[in-house]
TrEMBL record:
This is CUL9 protein. Gene3D superfamilies: Winged helix-like DNA-binding domain superfamily/Winged helix DNA-binding domain. Residues 19-96 form the Cullin neddylation domain.
Length: 100
């Protein structure tokens, strides 16, 4: 006997979390790809380039993905994540410039 309806929202939450993780992974890939090519870049320029790539659906030359909406907050969050992981670093004399 089942008195309570099945909890479908738990499955929806898992799907949302999975989508957010995929989005974060794509953004982190974009950030590292851009900085690998540029070696160093002002954080504002990096944010604009990542957002532009997201709108165009491009990971780089010849690599495409489905375009999605991303905001500067999403990109900055990923930049902070990559800084904490040690993949990126700031220049000591110019902390607004990021290096790979």
């Amino acid at each position: 006997l089942r008195l309570l309806p099945r909890q479908r929202y738990l499955r929806a939450e898992r799907a949302d979390v999975s989508a957010l993780e995929r989005k974060r992974n794509v953004l982190c890939c974009l950030i590292t790809r851009i900085l690998k090519v540029e070696k160093q870049l002002h954080i504002d320029n990096l944010v604009f380039r990542v957002i532009d790539a997201c709108q165009k659906g491009e990971l780089g030359p010849g690599l495409r993905f489905l375009s999605f909406c991303c905001h500067s907050v999403d990109v900055l969050s990923c930049v902070l994540h990559l800084l904490n992981q040690g993949y990126l670093r700031r220049q000591e004399e110019r902390p607004h410039v990021l290096e790979y």
